[in-house]
């Protein structure tokens, strides 16, 4: 992969990495607030493994909300670790974010495709309702792909900065004068 030299054609990859980490923290906090403020019946949860009764019991106990909140708290922690890594110029501290980022991108793609296909295949006899589901599926598909592209670009910015810092660390061991070690 060719490394990016700039973020958004004007900022360095270091600045882009810091912006990405701050965005991750802000979006995670906003999502946690939204998860706990929105009424329970609006959030849909299906395990696809167990029956609908089990899904309703899990939802009644707020298990999906708790799991999502814990995941988002770990995301906040990894974003804070990314900020520290940029400030201290340590590539190994950036690695958890890089790995998490690509895993989340794959999960986002699967989620967008699954959700839009589910809306497209929604079975109903009402033509107006079918039309509304098709519009919603198209919005989810197009919006999700745009969001995925933006996310992958920001991941590429962070990955490029990670590679730059890693290369700098490797070069630094042998190019420093003996009295500076």
Automatic annotation (TrEMBL):
Signal peptide: none
InterPro entries in the cross-refs: MARVEL_domain_protein_3
Superkingdom of the source species: Eukaryota
Keyword annotations: Membrane, Transmembrane, Transmembrane helix
Positions of transmembrane segments: 16-38, 66-86, 98-121, 133-156
Protein name, per record: Lysosomal-associated transmembrane protein 4B
Species of origin: Loxostege sticticalis (Beet webworm moth)
Taxonomic placement: Eukaryota, Metazoa, Ecdysozoa, Arthropoda, Hexapoda
């Amino acid at each position: 992969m060719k490394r990016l030299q700039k973020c958004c054609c004007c900022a360095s990859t270091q600045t882009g990495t810091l912006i990405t980490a701050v965005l991750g923290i802000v979006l995670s906090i906003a999502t946690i607030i939204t998860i706990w403020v929105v009424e329970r019946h609006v959030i849909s949860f299906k395990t696809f493994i167990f029956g609908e009764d089990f899904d309703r019991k899990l939802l009644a106990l707020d298990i999906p909300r708790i799991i999502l909140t814990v995941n988002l708290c770990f995301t906040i922690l990894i974003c804070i670790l990314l900020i520290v890594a940029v400030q201290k110029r340590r590539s190994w501290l950036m690695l958890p974010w890089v790995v998490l980022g690509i895993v989340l991108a794959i999960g986002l793609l699967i989620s967008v495709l699954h959700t839009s296909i589910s809306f497209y295949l929604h079975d109903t006899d009402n033509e107006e309702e079918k039309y509304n589901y098709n519009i919603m599926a198209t919005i989810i598909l197009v919006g999700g792909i745009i969001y995925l592209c933006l996310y992958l670009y920001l991941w590429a910015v962070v990955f490029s900065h990670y590679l730059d810092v890693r290369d700098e660390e490797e070069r630094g061991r042998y190019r420093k004068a003996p009295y500076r070690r």
